[in-house]
Structure formats: structure tokens, C-alpha cells
């Protein structure tokens, strides 16, 4: 998934000068995850004072499970000298997942986009311990996690162990969502991690090698060379584009006898591919795929997949049809991992589809668990839930009405506390929040009562949306959470968050809520062309956008080592082509 298309949702105060440390358990498997929940009067949105004020001179344990975007970003920015930090992940590396489609066809080598975790943590101040293992269960009641090492070879000693934590940050990412479609797990490929990309690369070559075997009929050769991508999102589209380039630039010269038998199909349940992008980009991508001979089938829902056929239901007519395939890539979304589902049951979120946090990334119904990236979502507090408290806070003279001057005194706190306000103002092309009150105020008194105030504000919550499951979101969440941990003591003495309109606690929140800043998103379309949504409603498409993609992705690499490797792979591909070896 693209870094910009693909690719951080209350926590305690943190200070690098503090002598106390916290043990944080961070769960991250691949692209990271995020959790959110709304404030309530029974539970403070930030860390309770009993925790914030705790300072026994000993470091608190911070256990980090996972090495994806959210976890790695958190570790890189955390002042590890303040905490006893432990990292647990089933993989001992960080992978630059936006380039996974490039790995599937040999445009970029797998080792060029990974950085060993131990290389990352050794550069941090303070000692960070790493354990290569899976987290099997989170015991929220006893602040403990249970893990098991996952090694293929026979090792001596127990592979199971447990760790206690003072703070847990869940960032385990997500798994592929099959929607319980029959045959998907058994007969489809996925593209969620590096192992998936390497498996796809081998299978692509296998399909061509099988197709050129003697004594096969033409129909059998066509079946082996029919590549079906289910899902027209960024991942599916990028893989289709990479595969087409691999075919046109390299494989036609290696397998000339079957070059006219290859077919690439993209199956999308919606009306358009890249439907999360600007409609101009979606249209451009469909037109380019049409010129390239990539078949795009929209309005189709896959009902089953066998080892030889994929069965679809046409939404407009309800008709069932089956098509043969040589390879199927399933790229239709994500779902919650089992360890997170079990944790959600423990804390009363079992009926939710995804783990929920508040705006400070603290998991709902917990005091010391945080979540980042794909595994969670921020349950944004609605402004109408606090509308009476906001009115009372602004009504300083207790007159029962608000003047424009009284309202202006709390405008900045409202915008900082409720991110949907700024989104609503931008979408409505309003310059200031006070513009909403002008129509509600009486002509003679220029004041508004509580009912008029509610009427003026009630549409703001319509702009409350979930953040996309992208690397960009997860990375920003990791940085935000690390900053909050580092500034614990400073913000305890000098809170920097907005006014606390509702709930227990002091007059202000310790920290400002997490605010996602969108820097744009890319969609490579093959043939040295790409499309991009850029900040400010800018849309760019074509060859120049592809070179912008090269520069951005090179700059976003986690180290100079991987940056040089990726650039050298691109250069090697331009000069020598892609490697078609089955390794």
C-alpha cells in the first residue's frame, strides 16, 4: 500500500528530563494500527493523575510489540533513556511496505526495503531490548502479555515467555479481510508483508514456466497466464501496473512463444478502481489500463475461488460467471488480528469491528494501553456531546446567552479539541467558526441562546471520519505518541492541550489531541506514469508525477543504507531489466 495512499489515533505526560520511566508495550506487525475512543465523564481522556504523578525514581517498563510503521516511528522518536523499553515482534526487521508491489516483479529486491530492527534501536539513547516472538495474548487485568518465539529450526529451551508492562501500546497492524469467501485462504495470494511479495514473485515466474511446457493446449496456456487481481484499491492497482511493466519490458523477450496469451484482470466490487482517490485520478487510471490491455471489471463480487476458477456475481444482473486463472491476488481490505480481538473482548469492546481509542491514542476502558496504526481507529468525540458544557464555559457572565466576544474566547480550544470543526469550516469555505453563529444571533441583541447555539453547531459532527489505514497515518501516530511520552513532566506542570469542557481533571488537557496531516497519496500506474493527490486539492498525473514518486519514496526510506539500495535497484532495472530468476 502506498505511503501516501496507503503508507495516529490519551496518554500521560512525558519528559526527557524525567528520572522516572514507563514501560510501554507496543504491538506492531506490519503497517501499524490505531485505536480511539471518546471522552466520558466516568473516565478521563488522558492518563489519570495517580499515574501522572507517580515518580518512584525507577524506570517503568515499556514493551513494544511489533516493528511496523507505527512501532518503528515510535521507537525512533522515543527518549529510551527514560524508560525500560522492550520490543517484541515476529519479524526482526522493518519493511518499507509501500514498495511491496515493486518486490513482486523484481523492480526492487526484498532486502533493499528492509532494515534490521537492531540497527534501528542501537542508534537510540538508552538500552532497548528486542525479542523475536509472536504476542499470543494480552492479559489486561494483570498488565501482562504472553509470547512465543516462532523459529523453524529446533532450538534448545522454552520458546514461550511472558512480560509484564506498565504501559502497553498496541500497534500490531491488521490481517487481510477475506469476508469468509470460500476458497480465498487456500487459493489466493495476499500482499500484506514481505513474505507475501516474495511468494507472489515466485508464482508469477512459475506461471510462465508452466505455460511454456510442451504438450499443453492453448487453452491451458491461457489459463496459466491469466492473472486476476481482486480489489481495485492502491495495492491491487499497483500490482497490476508492475506486472504489466514486467511483461512488456522483460518477459516478452524471455517467453516470446506465449507473449500473446497473457491476460491481466482487475475485479472491483465498486463502480470504479481507486475510488478513494479524486475521480479524475480514477478515470485516468481506468483509461490507461484500457490502453495497456488490462481488463477492469467493475460491479463484480467474488463469491468463491477454487484452484482453477474464480466465481463472481455481477451486481447489476445478479448473474454468476466463472473465469479460469493462473494466479489470484486478493486485495480487498483488512480485518482485526485474533490477539486484538481477544483483547477487545476483555475490555468490553467485543461488539466493535475494530479497536477504539480516544484522540490521545489511549484505548477505551483502559488506563495504560495505547494503540496505533491499522489495528485501531480513533473514536472522535462529538462536539454535540459536550455542547452544553461548551456553552456554559463560554457564558462567563451566566446570562444564558452568548455574545460574539464570549464565543471568540473559546474558539481556539474548540478547534483544537474537535478536529471535525476545522474540516467542516474548510468544506463549507468558512473563514472562522464565528461565522456559524451569525445567522443564529438576533438582529437587535447580537446574542444566541443554547438552542440557537445547538442549531448553529449541529452539522459540524457530520465531518467526523475515520483515518485511512495507511503507513502515513501510522507513522504520524508513532511520532505523536513518542513526543507525548517524552514531554510527560513538562506538560504535567504546564498543560499544552485545549480547555477541558467535560469530564474530570484539571482546566486543560495535558496534551493536544492527535491531529493527522495529510501530505498526499500516490498511485503508480505503470509505463513510468503515476497519479498523485497533493495537499490543497492538487492532482498530478503523468511521467513527471512518476519522478516525483521516485524522489519521495527514496527520501522516506528508514536509513541511508536502504535508500542507496533502492535507488541502485531502480538504476539496475533501467539498465539491465528485471531479474526473472525463481529464487
Notes on the structure:
It is a single chain. With 583 residues, the protein is an alpha/beta fold. It is 33% helix and 20% strand. Strands 1, 2, 3, 6, 10 and 21 form a six-stranded parallel sheet that branches. Strands 14-13-12-18 form a four-stranded parallel sheet. A three-stranded antiparallel sheet has the order 7-8-9. Strand 7 and strand 8 form a beta hairpin. The longest helix is centred in the middle third of the chain and has 21 residues, at 234-254. It is globular, with a radius of gyration of 26 Å. Mean pLDDT is 88; it is low at 1-44 and 47-56.
Number of helices: 19
Ranges where pLDDT stays below 50 over 5 or more residues in a row are 1-44, 47-56
Distance between the termini: 24 Å
Instruction: Kindly provide the radius of gyration, computed on alpha-carbon positions and rounded to a whole number of angstroms.
Output: 26 Å
The proportion of strand residues reads: 15-25%
- Total DSSP E strands: 27
What's the main sheet like? 6 strands, parallel
Q: Which class of secondary structure composition applies to the elements?
A: alpha/beta
Q: Roughly what percent helix?
A: 25-40%
Shape: globular
Mean pLDDT: 88
Membrane topology: Peripheral membrane protein
Cofactor: FAD
GO molecular function, one term: calcium ion binding
GO cellular component, one term: mitochondrial inner membrane
Amino acid at each position: 500500500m502506498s505511503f501516501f495512499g496507503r503508507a495516529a489515533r490519551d496518554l500521560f505526560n512525558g519528559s526527557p528530563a524525567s528520572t522516572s520511566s514507563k514501560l510501554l508495550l507496543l504491538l506492531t506487525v506490519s503497517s501499524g494500527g490505531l485505536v480511539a475512543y471518546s471522552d466520558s465523564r466516568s473516565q478521563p481522556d488522558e492518563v489519570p493523575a495517580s499515574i501522572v504523578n507517580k515518580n518512584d525514581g525507577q524506570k517503568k517498563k515499556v514493551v513494544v510489540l511489533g516493528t511496523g510503521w507505527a512501532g518503528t516511528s515510535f521507537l525512533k522518536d522515543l527518549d529510551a533513556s527514560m524508560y525500560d523499553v522492550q520490543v517484541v515482534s515476529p519479524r526482526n526487521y522493518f519493511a518499507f511496505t509501500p514498495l511491496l508491489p515493486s518486490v513482486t516483479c523484481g523492480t526492487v529486491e526484498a532486502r533493499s526495503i528492509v532494515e534490521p530492527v537492531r540497527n534501528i534501536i542501537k542508534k537510540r539513547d538508552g538500552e532497548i531490548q528486542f525479542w523475536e516472538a509472536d504476542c499470543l495474548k494480552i492479559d489486561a487485568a494483570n498488565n501482562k502479555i504472553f509470547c512465543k518465539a516462532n523459529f523453524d529450526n529446533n532450538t534448545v529451551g522454552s520458546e514461550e515467555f511472558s512480560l509484564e508492562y506498565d504501559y502497553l501500546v498496541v500497534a500490531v497492524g491488521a490481517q487481510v479481510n477475506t469476508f469468509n469467501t470460500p476458497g480465498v485462504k487456500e487459493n489466493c495470494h495476499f500482499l500484506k508483508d514481505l513474505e507475501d511479495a516474495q511468494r507472489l514473485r515466485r508464482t508469477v515466474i512459475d506461471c510462465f514456466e508452466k505455460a511454456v511446457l510442451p504438450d499443453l493446449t492453448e487453452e491451458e496456456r491461457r489459463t496459466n497466464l491469466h492473472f486476476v487481481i481482486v480489489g481495485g484499491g492502491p495495492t491491487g492497482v499497483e500490482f497490476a501496473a508492475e506486472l504489466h511493466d514486467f511483461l512488456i519490458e522483460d518477459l516478452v523477450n524471455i517467453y516470446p512463444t506465449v507473449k500473446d496469451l497473457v491476460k491481466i484482470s482487475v475485479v472491483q466490487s465498486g463502480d470504479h478502481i481507486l475510488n478513494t482517490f479524486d475521480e479524475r485520478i480514477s478515470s485516468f487510471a481506468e483509461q490507461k489500463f484500457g490502453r495497456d490491455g488490462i481488463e477492469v471489471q467493475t460491479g463484480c463480487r467474488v463469491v468463491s475461488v477454487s484452484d482453477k476458477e474464480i466465481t463472481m456475481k455481477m451486481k447489476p444482473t445478479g448473474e454468476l460467471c466463472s473465469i479460469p486463472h493462473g494466479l489470484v491476488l486478493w486485495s480487498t481490505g483488512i480485518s482485526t488480528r485474533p490477539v486484538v480481538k481477544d483483547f477487545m473482548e476483555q475490555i468490553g469492546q467485543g461488539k466493535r469491528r475494530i479497536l477504539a481509542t480516544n484522540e490521545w491514542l489511549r484505548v477505551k476502558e483502559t488506563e495504560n494501553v495505547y494503540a496505533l496504526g491499522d489495528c485501531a481507529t480513533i473514536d472522535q468525540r462529538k462536539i454535540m456531546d459536550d455542547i452544553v458544557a461548551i456553552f456554559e464555559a463560554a457564558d462567563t457572565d451566566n446570562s444564558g446567552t452568548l455574545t460574539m466576544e464570549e464565543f471568540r474566547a473559546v474558539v481556539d480550544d474548540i478547534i483544537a479539541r474537535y478536529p471535525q470543526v476545522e474540516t467542516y469550516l474548510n468544506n463549507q469555505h468558512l473563514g472562522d467558526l464565528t461565522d456559524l453563529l451569525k445567522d443564529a444571533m438576533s438582529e437587535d441583541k447580537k446574542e444566541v441562546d443554547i438552542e440557537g447555539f445547538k442549531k448553529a453547531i449541529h452539522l459540524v459532527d457530520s465531518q467526523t471520519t475515520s483515518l485511512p489505514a495507511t503507513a502515513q497515518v501510522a507513522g504520524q501516530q508513532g511520532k505523536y505518541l513518542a513526543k507525548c511520552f517524552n514531554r510527560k513532566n513538562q506538560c504535567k506542570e504546564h498543560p499544552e492541550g485545549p480547555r477541558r469542557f467535560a469530564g474530570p481533571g484539571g482546566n486543560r488537557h495535558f496534551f493536544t489531541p492527535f491531529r493527522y496531516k495529510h501530505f498526499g497519496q500516490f498511485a503508480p500506474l505503470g509505463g513510468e506514469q503515476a497519479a498523485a493527490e497533493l495537499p490543497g486539492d492538487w492532482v498530478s498525473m503523468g511521467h513527471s508525477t512518476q519522478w516525483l514518486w521516485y524522489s519521495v519514496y527514496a527520501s522516506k526510506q528508514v536509513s541511508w543504507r536502504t535508500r542507496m539500495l533502492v535507488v541502485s535497484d531502480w538504476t539496475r532495472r533501467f539498465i539491465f531489466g528485471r531479474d526473472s530468476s525463481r529464487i
